[in-house]
């Protein structure tokens, strides 16, 4: 397992619970691991995300999620980051992440970026160089 730092034991349990619902093929893909890591670390984001992500099929209706009106700027930045980590279809700047996220959510975002790069399983998620 890549040295991923979950926020707490509950975060790790939520992550594992949803990860196990993914197909074996999707379970080892860093984009799926990253969005699950980010979404399961913030309960408000997870609630929004769960309306648009279907683990059993791997479908993520990100355009519909982005179209939903949100007043909380922190959740807005995190949902944009979700889509960025999933498929690169949005642009979130480093300054937006730094300025809009609390220290805990910044740690969560940085962890998700790490997961996207390296995955959580060293054998399955390792990038070929």
From TrEMBL:
This is Uncharacterized protein. The lineage of its organism: Bacteria, Bacillati, Bacillota, Bacilli, Bacillales.
């Amino acid at each position: 397992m890549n040295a991923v730092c979950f926020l707490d034991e509950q975060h790790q349990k939520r992550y594992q619970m949803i990860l196990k619902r993914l197909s074996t093929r999707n379970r080892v893909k860093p984009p799926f691991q990253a969005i699950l890591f980010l979404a399961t670390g913030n309960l408000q984001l997870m609630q929004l995300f769960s309306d648009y992500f279907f683990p059993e099929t791997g479908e993520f209706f990100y355009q519909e999620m982005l179209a939903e009106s949100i007043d909380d700027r922190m959740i807005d930045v995190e949902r944009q980051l979700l889509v960025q980590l999933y498929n690169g279809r949005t642009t979130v700047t480093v300054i937006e992440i730094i300025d809009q996220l609390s220290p805990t959510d910044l740690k969560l975002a940085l962890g998700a970026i790490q997961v996207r790069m390296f995955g959580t399983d060293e054998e399955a998620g390792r990038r070929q160089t």
